[in-house]
Design a protein that fits this description.
Distance between the termini: 43 Å
Shape: elongated
Order of helices and strands: HHHHHHH
Largest sheet: none
Helix content: 55-70%
Length: about 120
């Protein structure tokens, strides 16, 4: 019988079952069971081990590094070079307008950008 995971011991047992089913054939009863167990494990982990959204400034810096961008490349999102510097150095807050532009231009999630 499949039921909600309520203890760490039950979670460990489910994870072992998931490992055992990992390479099962697609569209099989085992694949269906794997999907259900994964949903249960994910629910338990989200409740007991929540992950906070990343810091918005660190997310911007990460995107800069990932896309090989300079501070000058961020002017369209912030309005001026000095504003880019102020925001990245945490001397000026990120505004909703800036966050909206960063979401559209750099594909940084709104949850991350507005988690300050």
């Amino acid at each position: 019988m499949i039921k909600a995971i309520k203890t760490e011991e039950q979670h460990k047992i489910i994870l072992q079952q998931i490992r055992n089913l990992w390479n099962c054939p697609e569209n099989s009863p085992e694949a269906d069971l794997l999907e259900v167990l994964s949903i249960l494990a994910d629910d338990y982990e989200n409740k007991h081990y929540p992950i906070a959204p990343p810091d918005p400034i660190e997310a911007i810096k990460y995107k800069m590094e990932e896309n090989d961008l300079t501070a000058a490349d961020l002017i369209p999102y912030f309005g001026s070079r000095s504003r880019v510097s102020e925001v990245l150095n945490r001397k000026r807050p990120l505004t909703f307008t800036m966050a909206k532009k960063l979401f559209k231009g750099l594909n940084i999630s709104p949850e991350t950008l507005l988690s300050f």
